[in-house]
Amino acid sequence: MIIELESVFNTDGLKIPFDYELSLASVEVSGFSPIVSPVKVSGCVENRAGIVNLTAKADLVYEAPCDRCATDVKRNYTFPVEHTLVVALESGDNDDFLEVPNMRLDLDALVEEDVNLALPSKYLCNDDCKGLCPTCGKNLNQDQCECKAPIDPRMEVLLKLLEE
């Protein structure tokens, strides 16, 4: 979605609302596409006293295996998309402002970038996931295993002393 911003930059108080769906099914993480629903984007671009702000939210459904126990989990996420827009920056790069020199904003690319940055780097089924036993592979969230913790090879000599 391309938003023409010339009228917004030139008119104090002007507000352009938007509400649409964006497909990010092509976004891949570890060889698969975890975003299983269209991203619902809603918000507005508004000029308040000469300052043009983009305020929106992106809602999506994310499905992926837990990084600790490999259980498939589906979760709804809502991410804010907020930027202050300017026609030109006076000095170099500034992360506080988004430059739109031709007064046209590619909202799809901006939302895709913001969603990619906001997605968790580790995806867990829950915050206290215990993961899998490294010895037998049992899911420790469901049941305890009978495996003993491996002995550090540097400590084996001390264990022999205790046995004697």
Brief description of this entry?
The chain is an alpha+beta fold and 164 residues long. Helices cover 15% and strands 35% of the residues.
Q: Can you describe what's shown?
A:
There is one protein chain. The chain has 164 residues and is α+β, with helices and mostly antiparallel strands. It has three helices and seven strands. The strands form two sheets. It has a five-stranded mixed β-sheet with strand order 2-3-4-5-6. The chain is elongated.
Measured distance between first and last alpha carbons? 76 Å
Determine Rg (CA atoms, Å): 25 Å
Number of strands: 7
The shape, in one word, is elongated
The oligomeric status of these chains comes to: single chain
Low-confidence runs of at least 5 consecutive residues: none
Total domains, how many? 2
